[in-house]
Amino acid sequence: MLVNGAVITGKGASKGRTAEEIDQIRAVLRGRFDDLSAEYEEALAENHALRLAEMGDSAGDDQADSGSKTAERDAASSLLRTLSDRRTQAEHAMQRLEDGTYGNCEGCSNPIPWERLEIFPSATTCVHCKSNRERRAG
Ligand SMILES: [Zn+2]
């Protein structure tokens, strides 16, 4: 009995990107950028509505009420920040794609493994440099 239910296709580390791959990445990044822009606009509108609602009924709030509103507002603004960061990242990756520097680590300039780019198309650093940066930042 052969056990080969899972056929692995397209495996084999490809060195250098083909034009098709680059087109594919560009489409993925563009789609991601558009999605993030839409999400950002939506979150922005929600945030705005939240603020308006807050202004409207701030009179007679009890402590618990205003506490949960603060939490809601914090969550909304951290979402905005996250979306904005991701959008910038996608934009940055597209820029690098045009420059021809896409796929190379910004830290050590080694090629970023294709497997990583498939999962995180906007990654601009390899896993090692990413964790180094985070360690420094933290
Ligand atoms: Zn690196």
Automatic annotation (TrEMBL):
Coiled coil: 26-53
Region annotated Disordered, chain positions: 54-89
Any Pfam family hit: zf-dskA_traR
Protein keywords: Coiled coil, Metal-binding, Zinc, Zinc-finger
Start-end of dksA C4-type zinc fingers: 105-129
UniProt cross-references to InterPro entries, sorted A to Z: Znf_DskA_TraR (IPR000962), Znf_DskA_TraR_CS (IPR020458)
Limits of the Zinc finger DksA/TraR C4-type domain: 100-135
Name this polypeptide is given: TraR/DksA C4-type zinc finger protein
UniProt organism field: Paractinoplanes bogorensis
